[in-house]
Each structure stands twice: as structure tokens, then as C-alpha cells.
Amino acid sequence: MRNSFSILLFSILSMNIGNKIYELVLPLLVYDLSHSSVSMASMRTAELLPNFFFAILIGVVVDRVDRKRWALWMVGLQACLLVVLGLLFKTDYLHLMIYNIIGFLLMTFNYGFFNVQVSLIKQTAAPSMLTQANAKVSFIETFISIMGPALAGILFLFSDTSDGLFVTALLFLLALAAISRLPAGNREEAAARQSTSLMGDLLEGWRAFVQNRLLRSVTIFVMFTNCSITVVQTCLIFYAKDRLQLSSSALALTLAAAGIGGLLGSAVVSKIRTRIGLGQIYGISVLIHGLSSGLLALSSSIAVFVAALVLSGFAVALHGVSVYTLRHEQTPSHLMGRMAGITGTIFRIGMPITVYLSGWVIEAWGTGVIFAGAAVWNLIFLLLVVRSRVWTAA
């Protein structure tokens, strides 16, 4: 069990390094092609749509198939698409619609892996170790949020920006090799799950979600707070390039500041939970993200920008660990894929719309309006969280 979780952690490590490089490289390439906040927001919207359209279906399928084999397909297909995307940029292909389509497919397969990753954590970690397991995953994610941009910054100094896509594909192949070493899934369980209909499985997951009042409340709050978190993260690169005039390598190194905050958050969250519950940790994350957004609205220098990034990274780490640990603890293993799909879809309902609109808002009034609006939005929902059952969640 412990060895399997270590293998899973290595694959998550490789995937996260690749994802961090990709998340930085793609917006920069789109910015270089268009110099437009609307084009950048449209690309990000295309990446968010798969979660909205397919998350529930993917969750149902993940609960019916061999999870190891599913993970291998999801990672392998992403590696192939990244190579195609890199070749398109190398040949100066200028039709943004093709990039949006490839981005849509990449995020579809990326979510397919993320969903099965949630199930595999539940499968490979002992029930009493779920908080620590999620903290380790969050630690890796936030550590890579430091190292990923830093590696990308070094990469940009010595090579073309689009080379980051090929590096990401290579890292995904390393993850593929690691996942292939996981033990095979229980075929009898998979066969038993396939004996029921897709609709029957979906309804079973939906009933479990509706009946769980705590998880339902958390999901609604996350749906709204995710809008501000995603919009702010989408605006950061445009703000740094357009307002602060940072080079690609300087921007990559500066964004590592968010990883430092995230690293601190992941390091302390387990200790914080011994004193307060997951609900209060979630509320604190909403407060801190609101404060970081307010700092971004006031920032006019790199120093304030970096301080805001540290706070934002800390908040995102607390947010992720609290929400995903609560979901793990509230969900039986055989429903994990469906519950991840249902909650994941609701988490992201407002994100495509708000991200797309943010591009036009920036075009008209600048990024300051976005950051200030996100600060107010988070503080309003903090007050609602404190007055709800979520605040008292253990």
C-alpha cells in the first residue's frame, strides 16, 4: 500500500512539473501571437470547458474501469497532443482556433487523469492517513509551483518558449512509466461495476451527493470562490507582461513566489487541523485570498506583486487541502470517481463565464478592477461561510 502511494506520488510529481511549465508556456505563446487579453482569456476558457461538460461523465466512467489503465491513456494522449502543439508553434501557425481546440482536448484528458488521481489516492492511502496523503500531494503541487516556473525561467533563457511544450511531454512520459508500475486494479470489482447502467451509476452518485448536507454546502461555496481564484490567476500573466513589463524568464521566476506561499501552507495545514476543523481552514483560505487580491489591486511594483503572490499561494494550498480532504472523508471509495465528477463540475460551473468576461473587462478597464472585485467577492463569501454549517466542519 505504502509503496503504491509512493509510486503514485512520483507520477503526480512528474505531471505537476509538466503542468506548471505548460500553464506558463501556453499563455505566453498566445500573448506573443496576439498581445490581447481577450485571446488569452478565450484560451483559458477553452481549457475550462471540459470540466464543465465532461466531469460528471468522466467520474462515472472512472468508477467503472480499470483505474491504472485509464490513467495510462489519459497521460499518453496528453503527451501526444503536447508534441503536436509544440510543432504548430515551431512552424508559426497563426490560427488561434486550432490552439483552442488542442487546449480543450488537453484539459479533457488532464481532468481524466485528475479524477482518477483522486480515486487512486483514496485507493492507495489508509483511511486514517488521508489528511497526510492530501497534504503530501498539496506539498508536491506547491513545491512544483516554485520549481516549475523557476525551471521554465531557466529554460526560456537558453531556448525558445515553445520548447517548454516538448519538455512537458517528456515529463508526462516519465509519469507514464511510473504509473505502469502501479499494481493492476481489481478486475472483479471493475466487472461488478460495469454490470449496472451508466445512468444508474450517475443517479447513485447524485443521491449520495444530495444526501450529504455538509459536502453539498462546501461544494456550493467552492463554486463561487473558485470564480475569483481562477480569474485572478488568469489575469496575473497579462498584468505582469502588460503592466509590469516583465520578460518571460523574469515572470517565470517571479511566479515562483506563489509556490513559496503554497509550500508554507502545505507544510502547516496538518498542524493547523489539530487545532481547528477543515471548515475553519477553508474559511481562512477565503480570507487570505481576498487579502492577496486586494494587494494586487493596489500593487504598482514588483515587491508588492511578489508579496501578493506569496499570500495567494498560501491561500490556495489551504483551500485545496481542506476541500479535497473533506471530500475524501465524506465519500465511500466506490463512489469516489462519481463524487469527484459531480463536485468538480459544480466547482467549475461559473469559471468559464467569469474567465471569458474577465478578458473583456481587462480590455476596457484594466486588471485593477478584476483584482478589487475579487477581494470584495471573497470577503462577502467569508461572512457567509462563517454563518454556515461549513464553518463547524471537523
Structure, explained:
It is a single chain. This protein is mostly helical and 394 residues long. It has a single domain (2-389), classed as Growth Hormone, Chain: A (Up-down Bundle). It has helices spanning 2-34, 37-62, 67-90, 96-124, 130-158, 163-179, 187-194, 198-211, 213-242, 248-273, 278-298, 302-330, 336-347, 351-365, 367-386. Helix 3 (67-90) runs antiparallel to helix 6 (163-179), helix 4 packs across helix 13 (336-347) and helix 9 (213-242) runs antiparallel to helix 15 (367-386). The model has no long low-confidence stretch (mean pLDDT 85). Pfam families: MFS_1 (PF07690). It is a multi-pass membrane protein. One of its GO terms (molecular function) is transmembrane transporter activity. Residues 214-394 form the Major facilitator superfamily (MFS) profile domain.
CATH topology: Growth Hormone, Chain: A
* Structural domain count: 1
Structural category is mainly alpha
Q: H/E element string?
A: HHHHHHHHHHHHHHH
Low-confidence stretches: none
Distance between the amino and carboxyl termini: 27 Å
Give the number of helices: 15
